[in-house]
Amino acid sequence: MSADEHDDSRGNGRNGDFEELQxxxxxxxxxxxxxxxxxxxxxxxxxxxxxxxxxxxxxLFSTLRGAMTRPSEGIDWSATRRTAIxxxxxxxxxxxxxxxxxxxxxxALWLDEVTELGPTPDAPRTLTxxxxxxxxxxxxxxxxxxxxxxxTRALMExxxxxxxxxxxxxxxxxxxxxxxxxxxxxAVQLGTIIGKLSGEVVSAGDIGxxxxxxxxxxxxxxxxxxxxxxxxxxxxxxxxVTLYLAVRELAHARLFRHTKWLRLHLLTAITDYARGIRIxxxxxxxxxxxxxxxxxEQIQELLSNGALIPPKTEAQEAAHARLETxxxxxxxxxDVVTADAAKRIPGADAIAEMVRRRRATGGPAEHAFSALxxxxxxxxxxxxxxxxxxxxxxxxxxxxxxxxxxxxxxxxTSEELxxxxxxxxxxxxxxxxxxxxxxxxxxxxxxxxxxxxxxHDAGNDTDGSDRKE
Length: 469
Hints:
469 residues; mainly alpha; 2 domains; two-stranded parallel sheet; 1% strand; disordered N terminus
């Protein structure tokens, strides 16, 4: 055989293997596989992390067929948008918007009394689950895209290292298709998570970050279905709960609308952190050897438990700490302003505690996003941040507190969060007592001068000793 013939036969071999792989995948996805083939659509749905609903399965297979027949370098995120809307439109009741619409004007008036940040030009609104998905999905995709690209690249590297030598040429030809199919699976799974999140959130700012942007969308929004679900778990009047959540949402909207640098600053920090995530290729190789082809749900578990994302490096830890501090400062300010504005609401303290617990733990879909994208949006230092904002207002005034949002360099640092006295020193308020402490001191002094204080009881000294003459 001549060298040309030999090369041609090798080329035909590569093309034959590639075409056979395409044929097998196409047969499975089109339902044309042989009757005895062990392809179970429901098991495949488990692997993809989506409900085994016939309509959703049909959409998934259509997406994968498109990825296989028209492979592309990037991920087709339209699958995320489509899947998220399908999951959000599960037929659940949309909720009554009337209580929220009644609450917004009252919440705005109360906030005017407790913060220097005025109302936004955009009017607050109510959203259905599908509307929330449509207006927030691009932000979620932006967070997940760097990790999706890393996972797809790492999976291809693992496959190439595990593939027998004689099949590597075929894999090389099939790489664009496999990369496209892997990206499509990730996109569908992300859409499923976003769709489920729409059933957990109560407002546009519920996650703590500004998911909505654009003309008419920055005034705050409540999801009546989420508000009703949240109120069901509380022993509080539903109208009171709605009003409290409206105050909180409008406070969040005012902060981001008037602190114009904040949204970009926060989203850039999140995106930079996500881009720094690297996938553990060695872990993929180890797990690939243990996966049972008859149990495709293992693939879903592998993605959903975050096993592919290795422990953070020192740089990642530092970036995550900065992000957590920023999230805590935002949530802490919103907590304090909401508490001041909502003090007229019966049971406000109990509602506030439930909101804090909910933010500290997160819901199932939020945990799923954290595992899938390696990004946890938990304000772990929320109570410290709330105490710091309260202290600044007490030792100075509301104007000073809100003025710290004028520029990122003015915000409290992580060290000042640990040691509030350092922030007070920077503000020139270290030696100033709170108004409450001053009032109590002046009242006690007046009593002493008027001779109204009771005589000193030597037997009850503060050091606990019994002194005798």
